[in-house]
Amino acid sequence: MDFEKAYGAITLLEVEIRTFSDEGYSVRYDFERRVISWRDNYMWNNNFMKSLTDEKINYLVDNLPSTHMLEWMILYNRGDEETCGHQTANPAIWQIKVLFDNDDTLSSTSCQHFPNDWSKLKEIIEKMTECTFRLR
Fold it and tell me: CB neighbours (10 Å) of residue 119?
């Protein structure tokens, strides 16, 4: 996979973090519809949908490659999570789904094992949504 081109070909990005009891957060970036959707499983009345401005799209396009998200998603799918992540005591699950402009998808998930660059992705999500993206 040519990662430089792949980041530019993302049309939909869904990122979710949750506990075993299904509490947590989910964010969805739909670049074709230019919408951010936020789902808060702690408080349903905190859910929202906002338009994606050009500024936010540019921010995401410019900063997403620095997270190495696609690279570690592939490593997790191969079972090589030890090379790009670390075990945690936190009973948490993360899940990411990416749809590309050629309709290919890439999905990855893990339980109690987080990528080393998770904090970079978390910072991007928090800046774009203006919400905290960590479990309580």
Answer: 12
Structure tokens at 52: 């994606």
Task: Provide the token pair at 49.
Answer: 């949908």
**In terms of C-beta density within 10 A (0-12 exposed, 13-18 middle, 19 or more buried), how is residue 96 classed?**
buried
The answer for residues whose C-beta is within 8 angstroms of residue 71's C-beta and 6 or more apart is: 3, 84
Distance, CA of 97 to CA of 64 (rounded, Å): 14
pLDDT band at 102 (very low <50, low <70, confident <90, very high): very high
- Residue pair 123/46 in contact by the 8 Å Cβ criterion: no
pTM: 0.92
Residue labelled with tokens 């979710």: 16
